[in-house]
Request: fold
Amino acid sequence: MRRPDLTLATEDHNTPTLDIDLPIADETSRKQIDTLRANAAEFGVRIHSLGDADQGIVHQVGPQLGLTQPGLTVVCGDSHTSTHGAFGALAFGIGTSEVEHVLATQTLPLAPFKTMAITVDGELPPGTTSKDIILAIIAKIGTGGGQGYVLEYRGEAIRNLSMEARMTICNMSIEAGARAGMIAPDDTTFDYLKGRPHAPEGEDWDAAVEYWRTLRSDDDAEFDAEVVLRAADLEPFVTWGTNPGQGLPLSANVPVPAEIADANERVAAERALEYMGLEPGVPLRDVKVDTVFIGSCTNGRIEDLRSVAKVLKGREKAKDVRVLVVPASARVRLQAEAEGLDAIFKDFGAEWRNAGCSMCLGMNPDQLAPGERSASTSNRNFEGRQGKGGRTHLVSPLVAAATAIRGTLSSLADLDLPGDVDLTTFDGSPLDGVGAPGFDGDAPAVVDLGLPVLSVGPQA
Amino acid sequence: MEKFTVHTGVGVPLRRSNVDTDQIIPAVYLKRITRTGFEDALFSAWRNDPSFVLNQDAYRTGSVLVAGPDFGTGSSREHAVWALKDYGFRVVLASRFADIFRGNSGKQGLVAGVVAQEDIELLWKILETKPGTEVTVDLVERTVHADDITVPFHVDDYTRWRLLEGLDDIGLTLQHQDEISAFEATRASWRPRTLPAKHLPSVEIEAARPTV
Reply:
């Protein structure tokens, strides 16, 4: 292994979000985690294991530690590595053999990418979020539209987004077929990074910012492809089918396949509706869900939890709807608890879990039962993605919250809102572990622990 | 890696677009720590359906998969390639592949050949009207032959060369160690390193418990 000092390991995909202090019940998962821990120890790789305050989904852990910075090349054996592009890093998912190649050589042979500019002009309407922007983009260009491209998101609506919201957009670049998506770093980026454990300090900080400011496309840059969206046209979006490109505004009806001209798309829509158990032409608003999942590397950040809590506070959960709230990282969980969000979730009747990928992917105990329908803030609605036979509607955190209250796919517009709730701004102060319990004052209390503490589980 | 030049085997028509890697192999199988033995996991949900193509005798021994556009989308799991190979597939043909899947295929000696959609339709017609038809995939000439048709396919030059020679990427890259070291020496000192590790103060994480 060439560079352990540029490598990080976390436990997220197959870990439980309950009873994390007990041995992992699933034998195969336990063996996989034990193997990871043993390998990390053997090769001196930093690992954040279950129970560690820095454990969580890698696409939250990298940014919150300040390890994800503009201008870096970031790879990980997970396709949602595109998340880190929100910082102006070139970040993309790779397969196992490529991971092996990076560990051995710290390089990758790659063909050059093509470039696509996606400009989102204007201001987002109230009640819409960056999740609606990216779902609309995928519906527009399709799940293959970005193949071979790196996407650059730009325009006023993008510039106005917080880092959390930018991460949501870049995260789902892969669902449009693009390996990577990026946003030019700006003051929002620098404010997020400043003071984080691995951010540069003092003169180094100044040198870094000076360099980072150069990492933007020239005003007259030419792209291989361009897409333009008007933010003002956007509404809360929801998927109706079995790939993330099969999405519509929530105000629409379930599509009628017979009306689809393209034969391949018509067949795909028929198949999707059959799997999803949906009748053509039914208003999406009438679709009843069994489970609401709020979490994942797409929407499990503090800003997402804050906006959900704002909607749920003092309201009643729809009967028979199961609501899971799963923070993306242990630090996000601590931060939410410090702000009292956990009490709001619990009062509402939601389950408040430990950090991990949870119900995003059916690889840990959090799964849908066959035929069960979810409104999910995650990123994929593939057949069986959240559990064999499960039916997934991808939504924003705000739509998830409104759906948890009404029991059918809903947006804030469907709620009887009290006048004193500000529903137009959801990005609070910049997130995070800074300010979490155990942290004192506003200067970052960074503790240099030297080599990581490695907990090696029993060998299976 | 095993060399690949020409392969002949039973063609399997998979008339579906957007076959994502969760369909090729669901996440539940990713918890294993081995890189082989995934043949049963391939298309595991669809294989419960008796009408699924691989459940028909004529196609059961297939080794050339002819699929709809946007094959291999979604998760980066290389297990999708392993499952196809473990089942016996040597080639997948489609008009469009997801980038990560195509890359993973090249690493594992599975040919992901890009064929024009109208040629895919021709191949589907042959394979469906004459189940069990053998397809010959010639990587040297970059052609696909089935029954009375021969159509071209595309694989990038670098991947083709590696497959033809059976070359291992890591070995090739390590021939450039000096250049890698020279490049690493130019890295600004303020750029982040994961070690030594820096953290906010450690806090005990309370374990969530089942609510019922």
User: Anything to note?
Assistant: Chain A has two domains: 53-200+209-232, 236-414. Chain A touches chain B through 105 residues (CB under 8 Å). Residues 317 and 348 of chain A are 6 Å apart (CA to CA).
